[in-house]
Amino acid sequence: MMGEPQSIPQSVIYELINETINKEAFSIGLPTTGKWTDYIKYIVFMPLTWTQYFTIPSPLSKRNDNYYPLTMVCSTVWIILYTFVIVWFTYDVTEGCL
């Protein structure tokens, strides 16, 4: 019959989505543009990006297919740590100014 939905395996759909989203995978390598401002940004953000890259598993890689919950927990822990540092630093700066 015409108009009936086709049965497509979930793995095929996953592969299509993964290829679409992950065309340019995140890299922690040096910038390729050659502008000096990109190198400054790279050096400034290096501690944050490297620690996140090595501590949060990427759910987009085939090796970490089922690690979505772990990725969510690790991301939440990083957000909590960043929030703590920002609040602590703000408190210390305001205490020093008063």
Topology:
Elements: H1 10-21, H2 36-55, H3 68-97
Percent in helix: 55-70%
Query: How far is the N terminus from the C terminus?
Result: 77 Å
- Classify the beta-strand content into a percent band: under 5%
Order of helices and strands: HHH
Contiguous runs where pLDDT drops below 50 for at least 5 residues: none
Number of helices: 3
- Structural class, by secondary structure, is mainly alpha
The best one-word shape is elongated
Biggest β-sheet, characterized? Answer: none
The radius of gyration over CA amounts to 21 Å
Kindly give the count of domains: 1
Mean pLDDT across the residues is 82
Number of strands: 0
Fill in the keyword field for this structure.
3 helices, 98 residues, 63% helix, elongated, mainly alpha
Structure description:
It is a single chain. The chain is mainly alpha-helical and 98 residues long. The protein has one domain (10-97). Helix content is 63%, strand content 0%. It has three helices and no strands. The chain has helices spanning 10-21, 36-55, 68-97. The longest helix has 30 residues, at 68-97. The termini are far apart. The mean pLDDT is 82.
Quick synopsis:
With 98 residues, the protein is mainly alpha-helical. The chain has helices spanning 10-21, 36-55, 68-97.
